[in-house]
Amino acid sequence: MRKNTTYTPPVKSTKLKVSTEGNLMDFLLTKMGGMKRNSVKSLLAHRQVMVNGKITTLFNHPLKPGDGVDVKSSRGNIELTHPKLRMLYEDNDIIVVEKKEGLLTVSTGKGDETTAFSILKTHVKKGSPSNRIYVVHRLDRETSGVLIFAKNRDAQLILQENWHKIVTRRTYIALVEGKMEKQKDTITSWLSENEKSLKIHSGKEADGGKKAVTHYRCLKSNNHFSLLELELETGRKNQIRVHLQSIGHPVSGDKKYGSLGSPLGRICLHASILAFYHPFTREQLSFEVPAPKAFTKVFTLKD
Fold this sequence. Notes:
The protein is an alpha+beta fold. Strands 7, 8, 9, 10, 11, 12, 13, 14, 15, 16 and 17 form an 11-stranded mixed beta sheet that branches. A 4-stranded antiparallel beta sheet has the order 1-6-3-4, with no helix packed on it. Strands 2-5 form a two-stranded antiparallel ribbon. It is globular, with a radius of gyration of 21 Å.
């Protein structure tokens, strides 16, 4: 049996189906019982509207017949206020957040440092002292982007044990050193961890390592940097960082894996898109957070 760790009151949702082409504002004005334009704008601004499982804040979002529009009653995202963590979505089973760089996902066991886990643990306990939070996956401290947590053990186990079936897309954006020779390619290698240095090493043969596959395409480049979009086929520890080092284009700021400098004062890796099936409703959800603007500002500088 799945444990009941819901908020009181639970998040309510109005599900609507689109029958004719149009835009989101006009559709909501028609369907939401005489709601005023400013009220609809407020729903959008507070990320309470989803189209086909994806949050949108655009009043002119185009709609076509068959689209599903989901309007949440709760503004859960504004209950969480922290400079390093922003709520994207919350229901009775999962929480999806945007983690900023510089914040650990979970504690390393050294001291009482604030983490994404500790922030969300405090957040859910506002609903009830018995509420808990569970780790599903991790982002490195200096990697920003979309991150999922579970609100009960069953959701955690379903997501973790079926991760590669449930997750349909994982897209990262990376600013790397140097000009890419290939505009797109696939990197395949076998990764293993050195027990002493704790660094991951990439090899061309299995030799005890785990197979890792990363697809990339170059979005922009100059003589010094390239901006890459990367799709993960596998999800090994430090996979992107190690793979990019292995082809001679380490992630900017990633001194552990070969970077020579840190122009932005961080590892320039961002988890931009995460799409997955909800562990219980089976609804497909998709969340996208654009890469930090600083990633592209380096291209405005003269060579």
